Amino acid sequence: MAGLAATNCRQNLSGPSAGGGGGDDGALHIYTWANYTDDGLADAFTERTGIPVVVDIFDSNEIMLTRMQAGGGDAYSILYPSDYMVSEMLELNLLTELDQSRITGLENLKAQWANPAYDPNNAHSIPFCWGTTGLLYNREVSPGEPIDWDFLWENQDALSRRITMLDDMRETLGATLKSLGYSYNSSNPAEIEAAYNRLLELQPHIAAFKTTGFENELLGGDLSVSMAYSSDAIALTLEDDRMEYIIPDSGASLWTDTLAIPATAPNVDAAYQWINFLLEPETASAAVERLYFATANQAAFERLPADIQNNQDLYPPEEVLAKSEGIVAVDADSTDLFDQFWTEVTSA
Amino acid sequence: MTPASAPIPSTTWAARLAPRRWLGPVVLLAPAGVWLLLLLVLPTLLILEISLVPGLRLGQPSGGYGLGNYLQILQPVYLRVIGRSLAFAVGSTLLCLVLGFPVAYWLALLSPRRWRNLLLVGFILPLWTSSLLRAYAWTTILRPSGVFNTMLTTLGLPAQNWLNTPTAVFIGLTYSFLPYMVLILYASLEKLDTRLLEAAADLGATPRQSFWKITVPQTLPGIAAASLLVFISTLSDFVVPTLLGGASSMNISRLIYNQFLGPTRAWGFGSALSMVLILAVSLAIALLLRYGDRNTVTEA
């Protein structure tokens, strides 16, 4: 079994393979974002524990949540929800309360994650990595060097249909709120409406709302600027000199992706082993060197080569982080307003 | 007594079979019937039920039944999406008809007989590849630095940025469904009685007159069948508007997708939208059965 799993391409992009009850086959089934695990990580785990690893990929928190709710609750032992999704899943009782006595290496985490707002005391989730959401641009074709979100509005004619924004309601409306000087988590109807009107002004110039799949067009110069998660952007900036990533001056969103165990997970033992495995500084730093995510593990960070430690896209300076905000769940009325305006903007 | 020589009284057989005459059709239809019941009728009823729970969101409490989701569709933003879907469907159906009719006419009546089958296969060939792949191919052709613009600029014409506009959606839909149009029209035109055309010519009709007075009326059921089939397929297409239309072309399929897998997760509203789409398509199929030439559809 292990040999078979090792030769297979683990990243199953065509669709979740672990159907109902698929988690009972002794393997560790993981449901995660692209680029967070690779064969190196999975093989090292299998070598250590003898447990084969099967990885399925999702590209938005909402798709993951829908799958967990629509009868996929017993298919996975490990999930990678983002901060606000942890809160949402907690409200829906979808996550296991972690048995802290079975987890080793929590002291390795950076201090800022000791008691995160989205999951007090990390009772249900373990911070895995973090990042920002900013602008990725191609220097060769961009009409200038963006320093803030305003760049998109000021250059909308030059950038017409050469921009992609994230297909992510809270991120994209949030960035617009931020460009107006408001909070990502505003619950003031007037502010949310102002952001809607501003985004509507930009809408005819937006090529597409895309969370993935803009990379080739950006590299080819058919797009100039894409709103992107830092985890996706940095890999491109390292691959190609023309690519630059910036964290806008007025502030960006600061997100955390976590490790969590579904309430109805099979093979919980293996899930704890996976969490402990990733909390080990050696494992985490080796993975970061290959996959370029910003680790939440301080001990792993200290083991990284200087050029990665000093990469300011990956680990921005404190004063930049201070201006940024985490996205948190807003009240029901504001959620309705976000929903309504997002639908209007994407359907315009 | 050998089995071969054992004559079975026919009356006994008839008596034995008579009460079970209904069994034959049931046995023949049961597999497909069960299949349709489980995978088409029941899910549709489930969608209908969910669509009647106003404001239903997965994982959140909901209250009672009502028509709230259907009333929500009447908001201007959603009517605009439905209008856009209809425009895509009608527009690309007309484009397919205008482009497809001459081709089908030439294939059926004018092309050399010995090459006809090969030419027809040539037209079906694109259908053998995945529609997703073909849509991706069009993004490569239409993007600003793509093949199409390279050709335009080589010819000294101004470059066009058509990707992520409704124009790209029309091009993609027309390309995707043109083969269906041609095949059905071909089947219809092939049966055209050419002696009528000869008689018209003998009686002094111009080619234009005989085209409008004979060819078109004779093939009208085929035209209706082909147009309705293309209309149904384009109305609910998801791949082409998503990949080629970008932010400019939210249509009903994309809107339904967003209600289930997007941030809003409004399953009730998404189900109501699905019911409206199912109704529209059923209506078109009813028209197809009433006015279309069913034989040409099945032959094609």
Automatic annotation (TrEMBL), chain A:
GO CC aspect terms: periplasmic space
Domain of life assignment: Bacteria
Secretion signal span: none
Protein keywords: Periplasm, Signal, Transport
Predominant cellular place of this UniProt entry's protein: periplasm
A Pfam entry, by short name: SBP_bac_8
The keyword Signal is annotated on this UniProt entry: yes
Binding of spermidine, residues: Y84, D168, M169, R170, E171
Record GO terms (molecular function): polyamine binding
Subcellular location: Periplasm
BP GO terms, sorted: polyamine transport
Entry keyword annotation includes Transport: yes
Protein known as: Polyamine ABC transporter substrate-binding protein
Lineage summary: Bacteria, Bacillati, Cyanobacteriota, Cyanophyceae, Oculatellales
TrEMBL record, chain B:
Family per record: Belongs to the binding-protein-dependent transport system permease family. CysTW subfamily.
SUPFAM superfamilies assigned: MetI-like
Protein name in the entry: Polyamine ABC transporter permease
Membrane topology field: Multi-pass membrane protein
Organism expressing this protein natively: Shackletoniella antarctica
Keyword Transmembrane helix listed: yes
Any one biological process term the GO annotation gives: transmembrane transport
Domain ABC transmembrane type-1: 82-288
